[in-house]
Amino acid sequence: MNPTERLGYTQSTKLLIIHADDFGLAQSENAATIMALEQGSVNSSSIMVPCAWFPESAAYSKAQPAADLGIHLTLTSEWTYYRWRPVLPAHEVPSLVDEQGFLHDSVEKLSRYATLPDIEKELRAQIERGKQFGIAPTHLDSHMFGLVAKPEFLTVYLKLGREFGLPLLLNRDFILRTAGYDIRPYITDQYLLVDYLYSAEPQDYEAGMISFYTKTLQNLQPGLSVVLLHPAYNNAEMQAITVDHPYWAADWRQYDVDFFTSPACQKILEEQQIQLITWREIRDKLSTET
């Protein structure tokens, strides 16, 4: 059974989650994410527990229990001067940190150094910390897709989703293209795969973000799709955080805000008869399966 039918929709339905990554990264990210959730077409987000502005995002989750918010499982800290550490003390998860005690700054280093016991301990701590702050997560996903970089990492990701009863962001084509392996040998029918995953890449930024998002929505196919974005305001805080990074920087994130809070975006959703769905709905429907 394909995902749309499994979720109670017809096979021809265009189901879409418009998902904001990195909630909790910074105040700018938080303000833009909240605005996009409340006034735009964004209908889902996930929270970075190790980051400095996590408490504000957690407070929002607690105050807005109907919001579709998950945990953005975080094992990398990629910016030049704005860095974060694991939730656990570094000596408890030594393979996850660099010589300064920060999480590794790339998925490549994570893949080279991280051990499975350290990954599992830290991610459990992130989920539990989120719950302690009042988050009732609707799903789990992975910052920079670090948890699908290797099949061994994927097994931890799958284990956590199963134990906490939460759906996971998983797309076979994306993992095959970026990590080079097929996830099918590692999963069971318990897990629901996203048919199509869309996230702007540097070439899309160079060609024009509005054009990329417009074409993505206008050409959306039947099935379950996810569009990932990273909303933040192009202000001094975000400019300082993303300095020396030409992509996924402050102006990129402002484009994400502008498009997904625009009347043009809403019009395309209506014209294309796109049905928005949340991870909460997916979680609740999967939980009723026998």
Automatic annotation (TrEMBL):
Q: Which UniProt keywords apply?
A: Carbohydrate metabolism, Hydrolase, Magnesium, Metal-binding
Q: Which cofactor is essential here? A: Mg(2+)
Q: What GO biological process terms are annotated to this protein in UniProt?
A: carbohydrate metabolic process
**Which molecular-function annotation in GO is an example for this chain?**
metal ion binding
Q: Indicate whether Hydrolase appears among the record's keywords.
A: yes
Q: Which InterPro entries match?
A: Glyco_hydro/deAcase_b/a-brl, YdjC-like
How is this protein named in the record? Polysaccharide deacetylase family protein
- Identify the species of origin: Spirosoma validum
